[in-house]
Amino acid sequence: MSNLIEPKILKGFRDFLPEQEIPRKVLMEKLEEVFRLYGFVPIDTPVLEYSEILLRKSNGETEKQVYRFQDNGGRDIALRFDLTVPFARFVAEHKEELAMPFKRYHMAKVWRGEKPQAGRYREFIQCDFDTVGTDSAAADFEILSVMKDSLNALGVSGVTIHLSHRGIFNRFLEKLGIREKSEDILRTVDKLGKTGEEEVLRLLSEITGKPNALEIMEYIKGKDSFEETLTLMEEKSGGESPDSVRLKEIYSMLKNSGIEDSFILDPSITRGLDYYTGIVYETFLNDLPGIGSVCSGGRYDNLTGLYMKERLPGVGSSIGLDRLIAGLEELKLIKKTGSFTKAAIFCQDTNLMCEYQKIAAELRKNGISTEVFPEEKKMGQQYTWAEKKGIPFGILLSGNSLSLKNLKTRDTKEGCSLEEVIKALKEQD
Fold it and tell me: I want to staple 151 with a disulfide (CB 3.0 to 4.6 A). Which of 88, 156, 230, 251 is the partner?
């Protein structure tokens, strides 16, 4: 009987080949550039936390999705299901070391034991960016602006960011006399995009009664424009409030920045997690709305209150990178490649290996990623190797001159100097 173990992975988890991992890394690098333009700095936290840290402020649905277990020391621990709750613990633990307001980004894996489906996995990367230590409308606006710029940097122009305000919704529920049922109502409304109006109305009727359910449905449908929808929200929540004034301030900043067309005031956006207290938002690809939100978040003023007495306001957003990539692939906006290499130097004679390596060193000094094929094999095999990796150019050494071959078109420039090869490759950037 064979002792070999079958190579397999858990359902909802994935391996990433170079042609899959390279686009992820490139996208993350582009996101980092945007975050840094706004002054955000990187942090990291452990993948494992005490369960009480992660679950103290969660609902029953969240607990069902968490990978939770006892370690060898009998400690109750869990894998992080997002990056926001660990960030709250991080801020509480290191507050005296941080300059407030503190702006951080964190790109790392999280784990949720939910049912795998298209664009949704049990292990995935989140890209979070948050500002803590200020309750300013400017901080709310800046997060929205980063969201817009981040997606633009990834080549995604057709996006719509839906935003609302938890505070106004809670005032509305208070006016209806059902504020104590807000958590169940919020989570039900949050299912609107998945289950549809009829099912949400049915569920709301069970929670609040049919008349209140109809009032809620009218509220979350909104109107045609930002201003009209905000007027409706104010009317149904008892008039102008600090929360509606906050939305007006944010909208003014969006208009002054010339990006207001990418934003919709959508009262149905509530976000199911309990810790959101102010502005909330979700982002959808215009050409692929069915994949769901690819960037979500909101203001969570009371989150750090679980770990420290001092009130510390915060606002942030999270890009679901894997879901976004799934959408970009479907829209044919991801360029797949199996290598970062720009040019391959083919080996025609192992006795010339020192010369090949010298040429490669000069190319790299000029910022051209270069590989040297390490063995003397048939040229057909070396071409196949380069093409399989997606390397666009091949270099051949002939006497004292070089030949530069475009491996896609098969066009060849012969009798080139090293300087001419470097210039030609740089012109292809």
Answer: 156
DSSP 259-271: -GGGEEE-TT---
Round to whole Å and give the CA distance between 194 and 93: 38
Is residue 197 scored above 90 in pLDDT? no
The response to whether 130 counts as a known ligand-binding position is: yes
Q: What is the structure's pLDDT at 325?
A: 87
Angle at 128 between CA 124 and CA 129, to 5 degrees: 170
Q: The tokens of 264 are what?
A: 């919709």
* Predicted TM-score of the model (pTM): 0.88
251 has binding-site annotation: no
Is 271 annotated in a binding site? The answer is: yes
Percentage above 90 pLDDT, the chain: 69
224 annotated to a ligand binding site: no
Judge whether 275 is annotated as a binding position: yes
Mean pLDDT confidence for 255-259: 96
In order, the DSSP letters of 77-131 are EEE-S-SHHHHHHHHHHHGGGSPSSEEEEEEEEEE--PPPBTTB-SEEEEEEEEE
What is the rounded CA–CA span in Å between residue 173 and residue 238?
10
- Please provide the average confidence, as pLDDT, over all residues in the chain: 91
CA atoms within 13 A on the CB side of 344: 25
CA distances from 225 to 197, 261, 280 (A): 21, 10, 18
With beta carbons less than 8 A apart as the criterion, state whether 55 and 66 touch: yes
Contacts of 44 (CB under 8 A, 6+ apart): 106, 108
- Which range, of 170-179, 349-358, 369-378, averages the lowest pLDDT? 170-179
Report whether 370 belongs to an annotated binding site: no
Percent of the chain residues past pLDDT 70, beyond the cut: 97
187 annotated as ligand-binding: no
pLDDT at 1 over 60: no
- How far apart are the C-alpha atoms of 272 and 251, rounded to whole Å? 24
Q: Report angle CA 89, 91, 97 to the nearest 5 degrees.
A: 140
84, 147, 57: which is closest to 314 by C-alpha? 84
Question: Does residue 391 carry a pLDDT above 90?
Answer: yes
Q: Model confidence at 155, in pLDDT bands (50, 70, 90)?
A: confident
Q: Is 312 annotated as a binding residue?
A: no
Give CA–CA dist 25/299, Å, rounded.
28
